[in-house]
Design goal:
six-stranded mixed sheet; alpha+beta; five-stranded antiparallel sheet; single chain
Amino acid sequence: MFKLRETRSLLGVTLAGLLAATASLGVGTPLALAGGGGSGWSAPQQALALQGPPASLPPLMSVAAPPTVSSVSPNQASAAGGTQTTGTGFTGATAVCCRTAPPSPPPNPQPLCLPMTASVSPSGGPTTGGTTVTITVYCLASLGTFQNPPPGEGPPPPPLSPLKVYFGPNLATNVGIVSTNQVEVTSPAGSGTVDVTVEGPNGTTPVGTNDTFTYNLPYVTFTDLGGWAWAQNAIDTLAKEGIIHGVGNGQYDPGGNVTRAQFACLMQHAFALPQPASPIAFADVPRNSWQYPCVGAGAAYFDYYQLPGGGYAFHPDQGFDRQDVATVIVRILVKSGKLQLASSAQTQALLAKVTDASNIAPNLAPYVATAIQAGIMAGFPDGSFQPQTLLNRAQVAAVLLKLQNYFVTTGS
């Protein structure tokens, strides 16, 4: 039973009014603490006493008396205030009975991981727009595009809300989610080179190095292809299509080596490789690097390295030799059902014609043989394959053109 003295509260409520309100609630009803002070109050109670009742909860009654609280629930609160606290069994304090507080809205969902554009394909088109463009986004679901986190590869769950895709400041049309990490759109009209960004309920993809689209791709006749006549057709063809680019100043640098990360990006673009639900964490590929989406998508087809203390390394800046190139391409084609791996007998027969077959790693020999059989890679005029020679930019153009022709001839 509450002991109350006949006095007026800070809000001017009389004892009679208080008793009437108490009677309507019933003895022992918890009362919300709205003020008070003095010794014996904990820091949370003092914070509550300073704040007073929330404005959205109009008090039904209030009375001032020396604070003597027997219980407070909850007994902790932020010093910034805002916590609704109730006290029971007290014989004083400034007490206000308030209506039930509305439930707090749920916090905004946290992104599953950092969304990042892995590729824009094709990477260019006419200034009038109208190009069908596929955008691969690592962690697309974290933009809030799905009702639930996507279960890896396969068809996505129903979209939660439409995405918006911008080519620079211009909005793309016909936006559609085609997989758990790919969006297909029609490019708007524009000019120059722009960043392609994907916007969802939870945010927008950050600008990076893999999200550019160039209107009216300029074709440059490279001036450094003397002595590379065997690769010039491949380089010119792919440059006109915007698949490969020079290094600036009219140069292509045909003899420059292609790194493992660069080749991973080429494969990711060529095959629109999906991002795995749980990508391998490589110690030498930071999440915020341009290499991360490509390496994450391609890691399943590459050989990588286990570190002595645990974990893995990809060696993204290391050169990539020809037998590894053949292996990665064939693994992708075999997994997608577009090619069958050569049998042991076929491998032996095919490599019998290669003069340096003994230099091919035994575990990679079936992949090299399959690449030769499919016409995706070829040897040199002296009959060698040079399996341990690092792939250069001229050779990668030749391989990509052969790969393109393979898809055309097989109807893939």
